[in-house]
Amino acid sequence: MHKMLPLLLTTLLACYRQTEGSYQYLAGHQIWKLGGKESALPGQLMADGLLDILDHSRKLQQVRVAPHHIDRVSELLQKDGISYEILVDDLASHVEGIENSERRRRDVSGNHQTCTESHCPEPLTDVYMRFDQMEWYLKQLNETHYPNVSLSSIGKSHENRDIWLLHIKSNKPDARAIWIEGGIHARERISPAVAFGLISKLATGDGAKYNDFDFFLAPMANPDGYEYTFTGDRMWRKNRRANSHQRSNCYGVDLNRNWDFKFGVGASNYPCSEVYMGPSPFSEPETKALKDAMLERNGSLLMLFSLHSYGQDLLYPWGWTSQEEAENKDELVRVGQAFAEGAREIHNHDYDVVNSAGGLYYASGATDDWAYSETSARYAYTLELRDKGERGFLLTSEAIKPSIEEVWNGFQKILQNIG
Ligand code: 0X9
Ligand code: ZN
Known about the structure:
Elements: H1 5-20, E1 30-36, H2 41-47, E2 52-53, E3 62-65, H3 70-79, E4 82-88, H4 91-109, H5 131-145, E5 149-156, E6 162-168, E7 176-181, H6 190-204, E8 213-218, H7 223-231, H8 285-296, E9 301-309, E10 313-316, H9 329-347, E11 352-355, H10 367-374, E12 379-385, H11 400-417
Parallel strand pairs: 7-8, 7-9, 9-12, 10-11
Antiparallel strand pairs: 1-3, 1-4, 2-3, 5-6, 6-8, 10-12
Bound molecules: N~2~-sulfamoyl-L-arginine (0X9) and zinc ion (ZN).
């Protein structure tokens, strides 16, 4: 071997790691925990693109503030009587520390969990899968379990990735359908990880006993955004629409504000906002694909279960207002409590069953309210997965397995309680 080769390889590897592990775009971004009185101001500042609400549970209220907005946001919050405490003063180094250990974990895990093009028998549970690995797994599952499961592409994302829908079939002709959506918010990596865990349980494990139901799973609703969290911005939330013809050069639409129900009531029309609703309802190929596929099953749809993070809350409608109650609220709470009890049995983690819009955080144009209002689904839940703000979206992959275990147990309680 040429004597310079090892040096060259080491240098190349170092450059590669540096590029992959550089989070300079987050330099000076801070995470604050808000306190003081409850106020509508943070929601307004989010709509104006001045801050990024990280959790939507009233107990936690963590927000991210970009360096060029720190002075202004601080002043506005203080004027409104809201206090804040800095939890992370430089998100770049914070993310780098966590993601580097994740990367080391990924390197090691290659040894005992395989998911390559030719062979992906199980969803990975010790690392977060990349989109191509998800596809390999779904295709292999489809090949080995057809006709009991069937996989179809229901549309393409802006960047031409497939939106996959997996149908796990009931043996009853008039079965009611359960719809599970994952990954609509890019940075919430635990969401698709749990969706894939549920697929594996339902299609190949204990799930056979729930054969009375038809299951439809769209485990990765926002593939462009998800991939962008690995290649561009770890904190990315929206899809990757280029908004250049709008009032800005900012990218992305919040897909959980783009559904056509009370469109715009609790969302933003400013493309740089993290909760930008898009130019019109269902303007996005991802939401349009999902709703068309849901409407095809309308009449048999019984439940919508949308996976998000974080906060450990099970949310029920309505999310667009707290002035109106869901017509079967007591039933939604009863079944929701069954979930929470089931989840707690496994690792003693609490999930609170709460109304989506309780307090001052309204959000409209979300999957849950749309499904509850516009389809036959009488149950519609958004599950905010782990954790309670310790790691937030940067939840490390050790949490995948226990999250799947507790959600699977809670989910089974739901199946045993609905009808
Ligand atoms: O704001 C959201 O879209 C969800 N929270 S998250 O932190 N994952 O972004 C909550 C949506 C709850 N549903 C409605 N408000 N309709
Ligand atoms: Zn979310």
